Each structure stands twice: as structure tokens, then as C-alpha cells.
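Sequence, please.
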């Protein structure tokens, strides 16, 4: 094993701060602007992390997605992922990953071909349970509204929604299907137990 391959271990998440420049604000106090960069890989070479998303349910876990299509589930307590899938998008780069704001076991992934993958971890850990192809422009981002009924945040009475933007600048708001927006009464506890078994 070469020295460089010993430094880069698959499935590790690496983060580093990069000093960009010094800035002087209106009070003449010098501040440093720092960029936070992350990369990881399910494969041999590191790639850029596209997005990290913490559990909105107070669980100490987060999702990470990369430009090589790899997605990982991490615990805040461990450096290695609890779950990683390297070909869930057919090796297509991931554009966005978001943990559901309604269901603790559900998250959404978008790839560069504008396909949305819906994962439901308590049902299937090997791959998405549903995929949806969007054909109106290349999707650049998805954002999920807070679900007041599930998290206590957001507007009371509003239905869980997904905001989608594409490369033309269009913004669409979609109401999330009830199957993916209404949690079972004990889903949070089941998800916490499931995550503990992975730890």
C-alpha cells in the first residue's frame, strides 16, 4: 500500500477549513473568511461533498451526498458511515439530499438527470422505494418545508411541501404525497432503534 493510499480511506468524511482572505469590517477589526470544505468517497478516491443534512428530529445523525453519486448516513459520534450506498443513482452525481421534515425514516436525493429518489429506511436500506423523473429543465435544488405536526416548527395546518428549482430559474412547489408525509405514531422511536442497531 502506498503512502497516499494509506491517507485516503474509503467511507471517511474529511473536512478542512481553508483560509480565503482577511477582511476588515467597518470597525477596523480584522476577520478571517474561512471556507469549510468536505469530501468523502464510497470508492477509492475522494470526491466533493454536495450537501450535508442533519436529522430535523433531534437525532444525532446526518446524511451526506457526493459528486460520484455516493450517499452516506453518519452518526455524530463516529467517523465512519453507518450506511453507505455507492450506486444508488447509477453513479450519477448527486445535486441535493434532504431529510424529510415529516417522516424520520424518509429522505430525498436528486441526481444530475433531474431524477428524485425517495428513500424509506425502515422499509428498505438497499435503495430508494420510489423514483420520479422531472422533465422541465435540470433540477438544481430541492428544499422541504417544515412540518409543524411532526417537528413543532413551521406553520400550523400547512401541508408538507417540496420546493424544486431548475436551471431556467423556475420554482415549483409540490405537496408531498400523504404516504411520505404522515408518519406512523411510533416512527421516530423505530427510527432511533434502527439507527442504534447500525451504531
Amino acid at each position: 500500500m502506498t503512502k497516499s493510499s494509506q491517507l485516503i480511506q474509503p467511507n471517511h468524511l474529511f473536512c478542512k477549513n481553508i483560509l480565503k482572505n482577511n477582511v476588515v469590517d467597518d470597525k477596523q477589526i480584522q476577520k478571517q473568511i474561512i471556507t469549510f470544505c468536505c469530501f468523502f468517497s464510497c470508492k477509492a478516491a475522494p470526491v466533493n461533498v454536495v450537501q450535508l443534512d442533519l436529522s430535523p428530529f433531534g437525532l444525532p445523525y446526518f446524511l451526506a451526498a457526493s459528486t460520484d453519486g455516493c450517499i452516506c448516513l453518519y452518526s455524530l459520534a463516529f467517523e465512519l458511515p453507518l450506511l453507505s450506498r455507492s450506486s444508488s443513482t447509477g453513479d450519477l452525481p448527486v445535486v441535493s439530499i434532504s431529510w424529510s421534515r415529516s417522516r424520520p425514516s424518509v429522505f430525498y436525493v436528486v441526481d444530475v438527470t433531474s431524477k428524485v429518489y425517495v428513500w424509506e429506511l425502515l422499509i428498505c436500506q438497499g435503495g430508494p422505494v420510489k423514483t420520479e423523473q422531472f422533465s422541465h429543465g435540470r433540477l438544481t435544488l430541492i428544499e422541504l418545508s417544515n412540518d409543524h405536526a411532526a417537528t413543532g416548527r413551521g406553520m400550523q395546518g400547512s401541508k408538507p411541501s417540496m420546493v424544486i428549482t431548475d436551471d431556467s430559474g423556475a420554482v415549483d412547489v409540490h405537496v408531498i404525497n400523504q404516504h411520505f408525509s404522515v408518519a406512523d405514531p411510533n416512527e421516530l422511536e423505530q427510527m432511533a432503534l434502527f439507527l442504534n442497531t447500525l451504531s
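Residues 110 and 116 are 5 Å apart (CA to CA).
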